[in-house]
């Protein structure tokens, strides 16, 4: 992990790139999958480890983003999580965060970086995403676990399942009558 300035430069750049992107055919197909059973009185839940909100942008409603979102912030003082689509997220980050290795750290003082706007709090904001080594939101994990235990069908789409955590989830559907046709499964290498 770099300095606070480097972290925000990196996430600012990612937010700017993602905000310019549109959902692809796969996102739209998954949204259509959700809409069709809804018309038949059934329910589809999308559990994703993506943080780019493209499922949301495609219109998916029942969405569990277990790794958080690029477009949410969390206050390091009061803990409030808030949506944030500002571009740039704070003025001092404008034009910063180019991905080239030779890019210099802008060394932005922490006090000029993104700050909480809750009444009486000016705490430093951080991206509301799960970083390596951090615990993810237990409420969302429990909800994902519950949905996987209850579901009649689990489709695993668009992942090699080699990133930790989510690979643990699909096998929870295995006992009993559950089916999980995996469209992209590549077993982790030993
Ligand atoms: Zn705060």
TrEMBL record:
Pfam families: SIR2. It is found in: Cytoplasm, Cytosol; Mitochondrion; Nucleus. The active site is at residue 67. Residues 1-190 form the Deacetylase sirtuin-type domain. GO terms for cellular component: cytosol; mitochondrion; nucleus. GO terms for molecular function: histone deacetylase activity, NAD-dependent; metal ion binding; NAD+ binding. It catalyses: N(6)-glutaryl-L-lysyl-[protein] + NAD(+) + H2O = 2''-O-glutaryl-ADP-D-ribose + nicotinamide + L-lysyl-[protein]. Keywords: Cytoplasm, Metal-binding, Mitochondrion, NAD, Nucleus, Transferase, Transit peptide, Zinc. This is Deacetylase sirtuin-type domain-containing protein. It comes from Balaenoptera physalus (Fin whale). The lineage of its organism: Eukaryota, Metazoa, Chordata, Craniata, Vertebrata.
């Amino acid at each position: 992990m770099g300095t606070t300035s480097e972290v925000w430069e990196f996430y600012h750049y990612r937010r700017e790139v993602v905000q310019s992107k549109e959902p692809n055919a796969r996102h739209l197909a998954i949204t259509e999958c959700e809409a069709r059973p809804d018309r038949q009185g059934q329910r589809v839940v999308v559990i994703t480890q993506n943080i780019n909100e493209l499922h949301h942008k495609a219109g998916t409603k029942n969405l569990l983003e277990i790794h958080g979102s690029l477009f949410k912030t969390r206050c390091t003082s009061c803990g409030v999580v808030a949506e944030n689509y500002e571009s740039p997220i704070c003025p001092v980050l404008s034009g910063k965060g180019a991905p080239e290795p030779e890019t210099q750290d802008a060394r932005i003082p922490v006090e000029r970086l993104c700050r909480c706007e809750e009444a009486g709090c000016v705490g430093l904001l951080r991206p509301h995403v799960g970083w390596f080594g951090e615990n993810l939101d237990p409420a969302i994990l429990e909800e994902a676990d519950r949905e996987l235990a209850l579901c009649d069908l689990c489709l695993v789409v668009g992942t090699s399942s080699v990133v930790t955590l989510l690979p643990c989830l699909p096998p929870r559907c295995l006992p009993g009558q559950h089916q999980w046709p995996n469209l992209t499964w590549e077993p982790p290498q030993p």
